[in-house]
């Protein structure tokens, strides 16, 4: 259900780097493909005027809708949980590393309905985050229209 192209619409996080650089946010897309029971994620984002591809693998965890993202080093793992989704329009994912939690809203298009934004904001409040640490990504920029296969 997660396979296909997604646009990163919003992130709620207490990440200091995100707070300091929120004025530099640019359109970001992710191509998700299923590889066995894991998910292969290819994220395209603009940085310093160039398009970068970040590849990650979300490994299946013990419960449906739960994944593990392993980083470099034994202590750098991120638990990923699908909080709510409609495969045709949006996905709300939780990312937890230690005691730190972030919530991301992805859309099948770069803009989602107000009802979906309301759902996202409810999830954000439910984990103790607020509007002052919620960042919305711009929808402009033609570079993100390039598909992952061509990119």
UniProtKB/TrEMBL annotation:
GO biological process, one term: complement activation
Residue span, Lipocalin/cytosolic fatty-acid binding domain: 3-137
InterPro entries, per the entry: C8G, Calycin, Lipocln_cytosolic_FA-bd_dom
Pfam family, one: Lipocalin
GO MF terms held by the record: complement binding
Highest taxon of source: Eukaryota
GO CC terms of this entry: blood microparticle; extracellular exosome; membrane attack complex
PANTHER family tied to this protein: COMPLEMENT COMPONENT C8 GAMMA CHAIN (PTHR47304)
Protein name: CO8G protein
The organism of origin for this protein: Tyrannus savana
Gene: C8g
